[in-house]
Design goal:
By secondary structure, the protein is mostly beta strands. It has one domain: Immunoglobulin-like (Sandwich). The chain contains 1 helix and 9 strands, in the order E-H-E-E-E-E-E-E-E-E. The radius of gyration is 18 Å and the shape is elongated. About 5% of the residues have low confidence.
Length: 130
């Protein structure tokens, strides 16, 4: 099932992607793992509130975008976390059930649950004796 979700912008989406007009646009780091029942996407978004995240599924693509607001006023002595707009697009295989996709944002991590449709889940078949 390694082709269920492909990372990165598609050629079609990349061509029509809006450009940022101010601030920095960056790509948040994402981990994706698979179980028998779903794929789970974990995106590191420190300082992002749930209302600052726009997550959409359309025509086989999951799009994550939003913005990270500056956290402090004044002069930074060191800064490793990026602020500004972020954007990621993932192509999703048709074996994912889009009607059951859920997401939550807590403690700087966005968790997206991508349940597999029943038809592609492995199942145990009972073998009966004659």
């Amino acid at each position: 099932m390694s082709e269920i979700l492909t990372n990165g912008p598609s050629k079609e989406r990349n061509a029509v992607r809006p450009e940022a007009t101010r601030g920095v646009q960056f790509i948040p780091r994402v981990d994706i793992f698979e179980t028998e029942t779903e794929l789970t996407l974990l995106a590191d978004l420190p300082g992002v509130r749930p209302e600052d995240v726009d997550l959409n599924y359309e025509k086989g693509e999951l799009t994550l975008q939003g913005s990270v607001r500056p956290r402090h006023e004044g002069r930074f002595l060191g800064q490793e976390y990026e602020t500004g707009d972020f954007y990621r697009t993932f192509t999703i295989h048709e074996s994912i059930d889009p009607s059951r996709i859920t997401a939550e944002c807590k403690n700087g991590v966005l968790t997206v649950h991508l349940p597999k449709s029943e038809a592609v889940r492995p199942r145990q078949i009972q073998v009966r004796g004659a």
